[in-house]
Please model this.
Amino acid sequence: MKKVSALLLSSVMSLSLLSGCSSSKDSIKVAIWDNNQLAGLEQIADDWSKDSGVNVDFEVLDWSSYWTMLEAGVSGGELPDVFWMHSAYSQMYSDAGVLLDMNSYIENDDAIELNNYYPGITELYNSNGTQFAMPKDHDTIAVVYNKAVFDKYGVSYPTSDWTWEEFAQISQEITDKGKADGVYGTYMNTGSNQSGWYNIVYSFGGSIVNADKTKSGLDDAASLKAMKFVADKILPTCPSQDSMANTGGDTMLVSGKIGMYLDGSWMANAYYSADNKDDLAWVEIPYEDVNGDGQAQKEERVSIYNGLGWSIYKDSANADASWSLVSALTSKEGQQKQSELGVTMAAYEGVSEAWTQSFEGMDLSAFSDVEENGTLVFRPYTKYTGRWEDAMSTKLISAWNNPSTMTDVCKQIAAEMNATIAAE
Amino acid sequence: MKRKLTRKQKTEAKWGLIMVTPTLIGLLVLNFYPIVQTIYLSLCKTGDFGIGNVFIGFGNYIDAFKDPEVFQAMINTFKYAIVTVPIGISISLVLAVLLNRKMKGRTFYRTIYFLPMICAPAAVAMVWRWMYNMDFGLINHALGTNTGWITDPSVAWICVAVVGIWSGLGYNMVLLLGGLQDIPKDYYEAATIDGASGFHTFFNITIPMLSPMLFFIIQTGIIGALQLFDLPFMIMDTTSRAFSSVKPITYLFYEQSFIYSNRGYGAAIVVVMLVIIGIITFAIQRLEKKWVFYN
Model:
């Protein structure tokens, strides 16, 4: 028995050693973390393969395994040829010098002109003049609501001229009327940051991190006011924090347990594939009437935005072919296709309209309208975003369960964030 | 005085070495080298991706001993081990004894109890996560309650332990069944003739004869419980208010090393755990002589 298992173990070990090193010349390995985008991206890559004769292999991992894989890959000196970059980790990876310097490629490529992309994304993936990733897409936040819930309780559908105060009122109304059925107005857990309370903080004029990324902004008066609004007006209309830690907001919305929910454009595809997709509709994110003139100024309506980048491994055996693929994916034509196929909105300015109309029967213009009559704020980040962002959603659990302590908890978090950022 | 080996013994030794070489190389490359690396890392302030590590001596260990989170995670881990190991083994022992008799559907029951063992742990955890769900879960639905099984700090750790016990039952049971079948029937026959009750034969024959197998299961069980990682991580959401009271030490290591990119500190935590497991294993080995019966 022992001998057999020892033999088995050792053969498994040697097999796994062998399979570690395999990279053929005429195929490019691409790693991504979002399965929803796979089909569309594969289609663009297939078109490119027809011209170039180089195959593209996609590998999809979930968010945390993806970063574990990349990190292990950097230490081990073996990375995919092409992979996604994200604001939470980009600075770390560019500082480590594992990403291909794209400057000369960009210069020699007629299809690429950096000024055509959203500046926040181009800037994010640029370190001291070196472009280490090409902008892939951008995402914004809007409110998705379940019409069946609104109809059932006789609440009129929200329109884009609403304030956060009105959002809270509608949410309260649904909560009151739906009490007997266990239906709530909305959902906002501690971890709903980019697609949740971050937006409220910035539309109130507050911030999460200050402009030069040296200090927390969570203890600013405006931020504290926003968080107090969340505690007093939003949380009482949400399911209990326990419920929210049990079930995700998207599940609750689709199954009619909540009326409306803030979510990002990257989730549109998931809602579109729901059985009851005809019940779901999108409306622009509310604004906060900071100056009290009863109208929405551009800076009063804020959507956090973020954009992924396409990076290339510096020591890739297929660097030139990899660039050619990235160029095909990020050129105006590629971005247009990405938009039309309904993969995501484009990082290339002005070609995202096609995306908002690419889901027949579901109007997604709420995501692009906010760019006209609102402000896009880039998702707050520092070099080690993960260190404070994760701790933040854990610390907020107590405030969520005991909303009257919100201000104190936020001040504590800000103090700890300052220490974490200072140690970077 | 050194005894000279005969030629036959020499050939045998040579072939023995050749035969164990693959395993030996595997162990050295995949186990011992990483252990040495981890210990070195734990003495460093690490840069990203292992670039720019600075040797700082015991700084990480001092931080770890001052960190209440480390302390809490240790308590969580031991609490889990203390509950799951004895209960899990007792239940599997009872099951093994029951299924060792001649009875109808014996193979069927054996298969049923072994099934959890062949399911992927991640799949098992996902199913339990839905059963425990507060609003839509099967358990609350069946009981007509509204308990936050995986969010209420007073019950969440028990719920995780239940899954741990349940998924380990089959493995322990099969090992114990094997042990039971090695016990010669004569002992039981003699005991029956002498008029011993089932209770007496169990404690005076079964347990002592089974003690080598029990010892093995207890030892691997304790080590396995102290290395718990996947269950809480898969069953609970990190925004659950009970998570801090369930979070095991290996999760803390994962969080520091991979989410916070703090490799050195993560390594220090895991080395402390390694030492503790080492001490416990050593203590159990010493106890072995006291109660394990080899015939």
About this structure: Chain B has a mean pLDDT of 89. The first strand of chain B starts at residue 44 and ends at 45. The domain at 62-291 of chain B is CATH 1.10.3720.10 (MetI-like fold).
